[in-house]
Amino acid sequence: MMKNNTVVYTLNQKAYINLTNRCSNRCDFCIRNGRETFYDYYLWLDKEPSASEVIKQLEPFLSYDEFVFCGFGEPLFRFDVILEVAEYLKSKGKKTRLNTNGQADLILLQRDAAKEIKGLIDIVSISLNASDAEKYQSICHCSFGVEGFYSMLRFAQSCKNQGIKTVLSVVDYIGQEEIEKAKKIARKLGVELRIRKYAK
Ligand code: SF4
């Protein structure tokens, strides 16, 4: 029987928080494609958890040092929950990371997301995925069209400007030429580039 609704899960000494299955992208390499589980965790949600439900579920995991907003969807769709949960984690002295597609100003419209997460999120890891908007769109199929790519770059710049540790990431399957171009983009923004292994 399906056991959906895992909100908090652990991998590599970190606790992960799965807030939503909504996303503005449909990436070809998304870990949820065709999957019921990820490392035996059932991350499809019948209902998105409230901040208080997440906080309650985090209690057994407070021995962990680092907490990552991630999961089978784009966490920015639950931005207010991120803020409340991150504030709770910070009150417990924990390190926090947000893994995101970075389309903050398209998803959150008028809000200055980078400013709002300053002091609550220690590391923002943004999926760069490709070296230009057309390639990004051909891999990520963003519902905002090619604007998704530019929005992601704007968010990376805003996070960097706010003094938040900002990391861009690409999946190694894009090939060496694209990786070199991604390195240039990261250098120009003054942020790190992480090259992730493609998880089949
Ligand atoms: S942005 Fe992330 S969650 Fe959304 S489809 Fe792409 S890999 Fe999956």
Explain what this protein looks like in three dimensions.
- The protein has 200 residues and is an alpha/beta fold.
- The chain has one domain (8-196): Aldolase class I (TIM Barrel), CATH 3.20.20.70.
- It has 7 helices and 7 strands; from the N terminus they run ββαβαβααβααβαβ.
- It has helices at residues 51-58, 79-91, 104-107, 113-117, 133-140, 147-161, 176-189; strands at residues 8-11, 14-18, 66-70, 95-100, 123-127, 165-171, 192-196.
- It has a 7-stranded mixed beta sheet with strand order 1-2-3-4-5-6-7.
- Strand 6 (165-171), helix 7 and strand 7 form a beta-alpha-beta unit.
- Helix 1 (51-58) runs parallel beside helix 2 (79-91).
- The chain starts with 7 loop residues before the first strand and ends with a strand.
- The model has no long low-confidence stretch (mean pLDDT 95).
- Bound molecules: iron/sulfur cluster.
- Residues 23, 25-27, 30, 32, 73-74, 101, 127, 140 line the site of iron/sulfur cluster (SF4).
- Iron/sulfur cluster (SF4) is lined by residues 23, 25-27, 30, 32, 73-74, 101, 127, 140.
Distinct helical segment count: 7
Q: What string gives the helices and strands in order?
A: EEHEHEHHEHHEHE
The overall pLDDT average reads 95
Q: What is the CATH topology assignment? A: TIM Barrel
Judging from the principal axes of the Cα atoms, what is the shape?
globular
Could you tell me the number of beta strands? 7
Major sheet summary line: 7 strands, mixed
* Number of domain modules: 1
Helix content, binned percent: 25-40%
- CATH top level? Alpha Beta
Identify every distinct bound molecule in the structure, by name, code or SMILES.
iron/sulfur cluster
- CATH architectural designation: Alpha-Beta Barrel
The N- to C-terminal Cα distance equals 24 Å
Percent range for β-strand residues: 15-25%
| Secondary-structure-derived class | alpha/beta
Spatial order of the strands forming the largest sheet: 1-2-3-4-5-6-7
